[in-house]
What we know:
Elements: E1 9-20, E2 25-32, E3 38-42, H1 43-46, E4 54-58, H2 60-64, E5 72-77, E6 91-93, E7 101-103, E8 127-131, H3 137-147, E9 154-159, H4 170-177, E10 183-187, E11 195-197, H5 200-210, E12 215-220, H6 237-247, E13 252-255, E14 258-259, E15 269-270, H7 272-281, E16 287-291, H8 295-307, H9 310-313, E17 315-319, H10 324-330, H11 346-364
Amino acid sequence: MEIPTWIELKRGVVKERLEYGEKGMAVVRLEIDHPCKLAVVYLPLTGGVDVGDEVLVNTTACSLGLGTGGYHFVVCNFNMKDSLFVSKGHGMKLKYTPLQMQLLLSEEEESPYHNYYNQPIDFQGKLVYVGELHSMLPPLCAYLKYFSGRSISIAYVMTDHGALPITFSRNVTLLKNKKLLDVTVTSGNAFGGDFECVNIYTALKAALNVAGCDVAVVTMGPGILGTGTTFGFSGLELGLYVNLIAALGGRVVYIPRIGFNDVRERHRGISHHSITVLRDIIQYPLTLVLPLMDKPRQRAVIKQLKANGLLAKYTTAFLSGRDMRKAMEYYQLDSTTMGKSIDEEPYFFYAIGAAARYGLTNWRS
């Protein structure tokens, strides 16, 4: 009896290796019965691939037209022999799935950092930024490095509500290469960071106390999930993390998602995702930092704030974030959000600049 599956699997043959192995990830071109011909290979999970190898590929996302960047994902290589396995610890990620893997978790007994995790997080002299979209990471890091004269050290905490392998993020590779990002931490079932952590608490501990960074940036990996409902989106988790950090006495800045050129009305002005997080999830009276805007846009945003009770809940600070352009130009970043550049969606980037400016000013005070 044929049993329906939740994933679409197809066989293909590797015709060309386009990128290979620099960060544990390869990109190959396939001969496959599918319009999309590119596939990602996570080498620690599947082993190496060579031209001519027959592979089994998960084609589900491309067939659904989802935002994977036009890539399939290789599940296994039929030409691979038995794999070499060297145990480092006993921690597992992607647990109880066919691709569960063993990693040395930073917290476990075999780790040289084990004893750190018997102590609470020390937030003294530290700063945490929390942002919904992965695309916030490059401009934020550029701004912080540029306007601190590179004197600030930055850790990225990647949660497990977007892409799980950090190697899928070209942003992280770019920032590491440009020395705009010092440390990466992968939390929960996300994997591939400099530190592998069990949960968000220990991930923050790793970033701020074990690695000793000045700043932690918390956001999910590429690929936010939304359903067009008030609460059904993966970015909701960020409000819970803001609550945790604020309750523990940490200095935390929440970066709202702002834009005016999205085809979806619910994401214009302040995105309905950010409004939900600010209105219903965050329980602490943080300062809500927004970018200076022209009068029509500022009136529209203030109307949103009033309608959702946010002017009464938060102290609101409007700051210029336009000098984000200077930082991005200096580091030659051509970052985009939802495919739009800083020229096409400027206030998204200015909001990051305003939040970065506010955090730096208060961190130094």
